[in-house]
């Protein structure tokens, strides 16, 4: 739910990285934090366990600059991927404007991808939202690993509505900014 | 179309500001923040110079949302307030009209009882203002100013920033 403030001339949008545990969502946020000019991004907040697994969420605000007097800010969130943190995932989806689904390309992780997608549909329904109506892009992560599913198979299994997708190696930053730009543009278009 | 967005218009914005200003004065508090349930700052009053506003708002909204779930786990419809007590500073968080979150930061110059009473008065005022805002949003089919060319400029800015 974008917040458009005509008096302070600010537009705030909430973008969420969703996907299975250990799929690379937090890595994406950390990469963005490390590469974006410190003047345009805020602090990276991570509510994680002692073992550095996301417990509640990671959060990073990024200013896009000012357009016609409106300051545009993206609030980037990740959700915890682990199955048993579903209550947290559901809460973070509140007010979502755009989604980046980070899928793990490894063959043995395909079930987790499917499970996470099903879970996303269910959790959006709680907020009376439908995935097909939200700005969405896919990040097929870990494309550098040897034992991976083809992009065609990932597309067939996860992306029936043919949302944009990007092949990604989050640890090296490959595909991260392209994905963010793509979903960002979709979110901006959804404002009018 | 405005995809489920919340728009805050000039007139209501200044009404909100006046209301928050009164709260600061009457409750003897330091800082007041009004936050939407998605964790985005609507506006603030008082001293925010030493506060990371974005972080504070996202954490407050998450805190409130988590507490709301705890309420439902024990069969309560909702917990409408949250209080965090520190050695120097305290935070009182309250739901306004089931739509937005009011966070009040106060020190020992004030006290919980006073804050609680004044927040209730402010919440009533804000509820009325937000009813007006949501009526206006329903009447609008388009967000003013945010036309095709605005979107194009914003997209160019995104390209410039993210390479």
Question: Could you walk me through the main structural features you see in this protein, from its secondary elements to its overall organization?
Answer:
The complex is a heterodimer of chains A (about 190) and B (about 160). Helix content of chain A is about 30%, strand content about 30%. In chain A, strands 1, 2, 3, 4, 5, 6, 7 and 8 form an 8-stranded mixed sheet that branches. Chain A has about 190 residues and is of the alpha/beta class. In chain A, β6, α3 and β7 form a beta-alpha-beta unit. Chain A is built from 5 helices and 8 strands. Chain B is α+β, with helices and mostly antiparallel strands. Chain B has one domain: 2-Layer Sandwich (Beta-Lactamase). Chain B is about 50% helix and about 20% strand. Chain B has 4 helices and 6 strands; from the N terminus they run βαββαβββαα. In chain B, β4 and β5 form a beta hairpin. Chain B is globular. Chains A and B meet through β1, β2, β4, β5 and α2 of A and β1, α1, β3, α2 and α4 of B. β1 of chain A pairs parallel with β1 of chain B.
Task: Summarize the helices and strands and which ones pair or pack.
The complex is a heterodimer of chains A (192) and B (163).
Chain A: E1 3-5, E2 10-18, H1 25-35, E3 45-48, E4 54-67, E5 70-78, H2 86-92, E6 98-104, H3 110-126, E7 136-141, H4 151-158, E8 165-167, H5 176-190
Chain B: E1 6-8, H1 10-27, E2 31-36, E3 41-46, H2 53-73, E4 81-85, E5 90-96, E6 100-106, H3 112-139, H4 148-162
Q: Helices and strands of chain A, in N-to-C order? A: EEHEEEHEHEHEH
Q: Cα distance, first to last residue of chain A? A: 13 Å
Helix proportion range of chain B? 40-55%
Which CATH architecture of chain B? 2-Layer Sandwich
Shape estimate of chain B: globular
Radius of gyration of chain B: 18 Å
Number of domains of chain B: 1
Tell me the number of strands of chain B.
6
Beta-strand residue percentage of chain A: 25-35%
Radius of gyration of chain A using CA atoms only? 16 Å
Structural class of chain A: alpha/beta
Tally the helices of chain A: what do you get?
A: 5
Helicity range of chain A: 25-40%
CATH topology of chain B: Beta-Lactamase
Number of helices of chain B: 4
- Most strands sheet of chain A: 8 strands, mixed
Major β-sheet annotation of chain B: 5 strands, antiparallel
Q: Please give the most extensive interface between any two protein chains, plus how many residues each contributes.
A: A-B, 49 and 49 residues
Oligomer: heterodimer
Low-confidence stretches of chain A at least 5 residues in length (pLDDT < 50)? none
